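User: Porin. Structure?
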Amino acid sequence: MMKKILFASSALVAVAAAGSAHASEPIQLSVGGFMNQWVGVADQDVGERKNAFQSNTEIHFTGETTLDNGIQVGAVVELEGETSSDQIDEQYLYINGGFGRLELGKNDSAADSMQLAAPAVGPVGVNDGDLSIWVDSYLIDTSSRAGDQNRATYYTPSIGGFRAGVSFADDSGRNGSFDTDVSGSSIGGYHDDTAGDGDNIASVGLEYSGDFNGVSLGVSAMGENWAEGNLYGGGVNVGIANFTIGGSYSHTEDDYGRNERQSARVSDTDQFDLGVSYAMDAAAVSLTYGYADYGDGSTSGGRTGAGELNQVDLGLSYTLGAGIAWRSSVFWFDNEVEGAEDNDGYGAVTGIALTF
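Assistant: Predicted structure:
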């Protein structure tokens, strides 16, 4: 009799636990994203005139639920509005809790996500921006060039303003791409891994965020390693009243070597940006300078080789309404490639940015 009572009690506990485990609400996806429509003119010494119109649109599907133990589980899928390659930009699930945040899927690395950069409010910018859409030029990027990969990423909880992150993309042979800028020019040392010789990519990031009597401080440090080399860098932002001052730096090591799909050796690359922005009510303005001393293997306007890039961007932004901003850039650049004609020029871009 006692055994039957114990068995019945155990069964009731199991049923109750199962009911509790399924008490959370099912995940329902919501829709968000952004749409940018730009109009621009540019003049350059070398190369044909670039397009006068440019657009960038993404539709984001996100959903989340909270389990009975307080852990949050969610999903993110980002759909490209127009593309000649992958229709899906990023897709991953995440798990949030007191232990931190775990992400699994195709997403940016911790090094990329945690790296700070100089403030810039215009549509062109100088760091991982849109310069190469409007002119033939190398593109400065002080963060990771590995791009979206199928990876696992873990972020610690924020403790005293500090937070760390680590990412790992495995040697799957189907993970990665030879990174390109938006004009299709190859920049960096990653190669197409879809042929079956994928490389492990390990990334780390560290950030600090704090406020001291009205002065905000953000600091980042990051590093990344893959089969042919590694990079490291950092950034800082300081906010004082309506001003934000900041910059970032990265260095790429020269131990890439050659592989069967990479005809040129990529040597040392140093890049940095510096800038200041001022925001008041609905308006903001920024002035940013970027510099790159890049190695062989990078492509600038169809001209492969080592070179230097200097770029200045004056950005303007005005909020017209909730999720609607009018943004403009006036830019200048000077791109020197060894063994090729110096290309310099200037341009202006304006348009509307929607967030929904």
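DSSP finds three helices and 18 strands in the chain. The chain has one domain: 31-355.
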